[in-house]
């Protein structure tokens, strides 16, 4: 009788005690740009940092230290403008976006655009062959110039720089190639120059510099000042000497913040967890040992040059660590 009673009690307990809840599986896409630029490898690093697929070993035991149950992935795209559209239309959960593009979009067609963090500074590159006889932006008149793909932030900034230098669209032969294709065309003398906005060293440009002698056209101080006055999210900066093979001097240019953006519609708790994972010490180690641009991503710069409101979940994290009041 006693044994039957104990067996029944144990069976009842097994029914009443709920099974451990499995981790909820979530996917989180990060729209980047073409694979030859800096957005794609940076997006891939961030995706690794914030992921912790269901069934993974705990962080303390050598497993991933991201958000439990989250699988993040970097998605190649046409760039900043396309990424804003994809976020706005809920085709991706987040994307990397130039600060100037983000600010313009949030004030217009994408009012729900929100920031998770500013990641690093992007420089405007204007690349030519050293033997092309091109020394200034004005020398691009009559030349074959790629302004990057439609939908890219580079195309927006190329238009700003060319117009400030007095060049209208009909003054040069326009091509719309991503950085990798433009570099290939330049190496074959099928193109005279191309624009690229991104962190340095940009993989496509670094590879090109190992194949042919290149020059980076300067954006002189007077022109840069004029552009920055009209477009406050652009600021004067330089590309340091030695960034690319054969580059002996610093090149004056303009720069803009690279922002990791999302939608206000994303859940606050999810974005809080993602922001916390992004700035964790394991993520910092991963970023430092990953691509060169990963070393430029530092929490101390996370709120610089945003130009759009923070997502409430991200804002909560920055308040928790004392970066926001």
UniProtKB/TrEMBL annotation:
InterPro entries xrefs: TRAP_TAXI
CDD domains associated with the record: PBP2_TAXI_TRAP
Organism domain of life: Bacteria
Coiled coil: none
PANTHER family given in the database record: SLL1037 PROTEIN
This protein's name: Immunogenic protein
């Amino acid at each position: 009788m006693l044994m039957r009673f104990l067996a029944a009690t144990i069976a009842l307990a097994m029914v009443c005690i709920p099974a451990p809840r499995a981790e909820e599986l979530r996917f989180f896409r990060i729209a980047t740009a073409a694979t030859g630029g800096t957005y794609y490898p940076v997006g891939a690093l961030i995706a690794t940092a914030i992921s912790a697929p269901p069934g993974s070993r705990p962080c303390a035991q050598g497993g991933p230290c991201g958000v439990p149950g989250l699988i993040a992935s970097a998605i190649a795209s046409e760039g900043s403008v396309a990424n804003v559209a994809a976020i706005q239309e809920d085709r991706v959960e987040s994307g990397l976006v130039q600060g100037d593009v983000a600010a313009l979009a949030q004030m217009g067609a994408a009012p729900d655009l929100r920031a998770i963090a500013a990641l690093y500074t992007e420089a405007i590159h204007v690349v030519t062959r050293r033997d092309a006889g091109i020394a200034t932006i004005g020398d691009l008149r009559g030349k074959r110039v790629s302004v990057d793909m439609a939908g890219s932030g580079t195309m927006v900034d190329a238009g700003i720089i060319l117009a400030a230098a007095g060049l209208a669209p009909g003054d040069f032969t326009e091509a719309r190639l991503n950085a990798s294709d433009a570099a290939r065309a330049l190496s074959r003398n099928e193109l005279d120059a191309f624009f690229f906005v991104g962190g340095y060293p940009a993989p496509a440009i670094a590879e090109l510099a190992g194949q042919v002698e290149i020059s980076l056209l300067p954006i002189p101080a007077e022109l840069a000042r004029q552009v920055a006055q009209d477009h406050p999210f652009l600021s004067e900066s330089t590309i340091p000497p030695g960034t690319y093979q054969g580059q002996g001097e610093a090149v004056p240019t303009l720069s803009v913040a690279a922002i990791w953006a999302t939608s206000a519609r994303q859940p606050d708790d999810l974005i809080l967890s993602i922001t916390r994972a992004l700035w964790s010490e394991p993520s910092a180690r991963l970023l430092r040992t990953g691509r060169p641009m990963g070393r430029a991503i530092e929490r101390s710069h996370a709120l610089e040059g945003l130009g759009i409101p923070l997502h409430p979940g991200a804002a909560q994290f920055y308040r928790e660590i004392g970066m926001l009041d």
